Amino acid sequence: MTAAILSGGTVSRSGNNSKTGVRVGTILAVLVTAMLLSSVPTRAQTSTGKSGLPLPRYVSLKSDKVNLRTGPGVEYPTTWVYRRAGLPLEVFEESQNWRHVRDSEGTEGWIFSSLLSGRRTALVLPWERKQHETRPNATVYNDNSTRSRKVAIIEAGVIADIHGCDGRWCQVSIGTYDGYVKQDKLWGVYPNEIWD
User: For 63-77, how does the pLDDT look when each residue is reduced to its tens digit (9 = 90+)?
Assistant: First the structure.
């Protein structure tokens, strides 16, 4: 078994509403739930971009140095520089040769399309990296069952190459390890997404 640590983090947001009352609270809860659900794309919500590819979709970075810009062009300022080839991003808009992307922390911006790859990767438990003193982990199994042999224990933030998903499990490669990880432990595949 092995564990790996790579840099990265998550952003947690919290809010406080001072209004009281069951009716206002219920309405706010319904609105917040609706907003959250509408911001999490699923395959049922897929449309087609100008490139002919589905939107939204996951891609990965080709290079260890990629600029994230505020708009679709080099004249727009760089807001972030990604330094991690293989990092998964979600494309949700296209403009000529530029792609509007979102990372696992919710940061959005534009990247030139030639710096992105259709190779599917995923981050292991990125949402849990800053919520615990010890790093959470996910188990890689020999088969798509928790009863099968454990191949490796992978720490949050590690990038996995995805070879296919059945809606519950994804077949992955992480370093020299091959096996299966529960789909809900990965950011870079949609809930219940099935593909080979």
Answer: 999 999 999 999 999
Q: Is 110 exposed, middle or buried (0-12, 13-18, 19+ CB in 10 A)?
A: buried
Residue 187, pLDDT above cutoff 60: yes
**How far apart are the C-alpha atoms of 66 and 82, rounded to whole Å?**
5
Token reading at 130: 């800053």
Radius of gyration of the chain (CA): 18
- Beta strand residue intervals within the chain, DSSP E: 47-48, 54-55, 57-61, 66-69, 78-82, 88-95, 98-102, 108-112, 116-117, 121-124, 137-141, 150-155, 159-166, 169-174, 177-182, 186-187, 194-195
d(CA 124, CA 11): 15
